[in-house]
Amino acid sequence: MSLQRATLRQLRIFEAAARHLHFGRAAAEVHLSQPAVSIQLKQLERDVQLPLFEQMGRRMNLTRAGAELAAHARAVLARLREADDVIAELKGVSAGELHIAATTTAVYFVPHLLATFRRDRPRLKVRLSVKNRELVVRDLMENTIDLAIMGAAPPDLDATSIAFAKNPLSIIAAPDHPLARKRLVQLAQLANETFLIREGGSGTRTAMERAFAVQRFRPRETVEMGSNETIKQAVMVGMGVSFLSLHTAGLELATGELAVLKVDGMPLMRDWCIIHRQRKWLSPAAAAFKDYLVMEGVKLIDGAMRRGAFVRKAS
Ligand code: PGA
């Protein structure tokens, strides 16, 4: 028995089950009943001769063999998609598929970019995954996506990275914060604040740590929270201040529910980049989307922020 007997269909089912870690959700995605999914996965386990999943209380996990097979299954399916796209291009078909990953911070404007891009391509199928920077980089490494939208690529990744817009980061606070009305604030004045910070693996968190290290600044207390949304809610109710991309807070800054502190040297300007692996074959749709962002990115992000009522300037 070996994997040579496995069918592509089984790999597809397994890939969905490994991603969801839930047979019911995988079954819904591949349009099968849950028992049919279980039978296919049992057959695969028989071929591999090792368990692929393990149940830990109510949580299902991949075994080591499961994790290895999942990485290979993703690679096989990605190559098939590429083949599909090449064939579609040969046939002159404009539809195709576009699989993008965006960081949780970029996602405040990415839907707007996709919506305008799709206007002329209604048959284009888009899959958008949203994760923090570390996980988007992993997607790039595993070649499971066409393009990533995030801050600059890590230097050790063999990637092509094109900056298409600016990402302003600064310190936000509740509007009644004593420093909110000051015309200039020094970072050192915030030493006694509680800083609500993003999780490890977030690009925002790394940018904050670098900026603070340059100024030898260490806040008295930090509280880690796993999402921009949670952090904004906590800042609004006065739990602390936070260093975030202003693109995450367009609406709250415009309505006055949050304020940007005018900290000396901020906003810090990072780049938003469109990134793919260097040797990646870009489908016509992916190549067109990349060109579109490079040409129109700044205008589109501005538009997205205005739609989010981002009226106040960052500085
Ligand atoms: P993140 O995004 O903080 O949501 O990871 C920032 C980035 O793209 O670098």
Descriptive notes:
With 315 residues, the chain is an alpha/beta fold. Strands 3, 4, 5, 6, 9, 10 and 11 form a 7-stranded mixed sheet that branches. The protein has a two-stranded antiparallel ribbon with strand order 1-2. Helix 1 crosses helix 2 and helix 1 crosses helix 3. The longest helix is centred in the N-terminal third of the chain and has 27 residues. The structure holds 2-phosphoglycolic acid.
Reconstruct the topology from this structure.
Layout: H1 8-20, H2 23-30, H3 34-48, E1 53-56, E2 59-62, H4 64-90, E3 97-103, H5 110-118, E4 125-131, H6 133-141, E5 147-150, E6 159-173, E7 194-197, H7 203-214, E8 221-224, H8 228-236, E9 242-245, H9 250-255, E10 259-260, E11 268-277, H10 284-307
Helix pairs in contact: 1-2, 1-3, 1-4, 2-3, 5-10
Sheet of most strands: 7 strands, mixed
Give the integer mean of the pLDDT values: 91
* Distance N to C terminus: 65 Å
Number of discrete helical segments:
10
Q: Which molecules are bound besides the chains?
A: 2-phosphoglycolic acid
Structural class: alpha/beta
Number of strands: 11
Radius of gyration, taken over Cα atoms and rounded to an integer in Å:
22 Å
Task: State the low-pLDDT regions, or none.
Answer: 309-315
Instruction: Classify the helix fraction into a percent range.
Output: 40-55%
Order of helix and strand elements from N to C terminus:
HHHEEHEHEHEEEHEHEHEEH
Assess the beta-strand content as a share of residues. 15-25%
The global form is globular
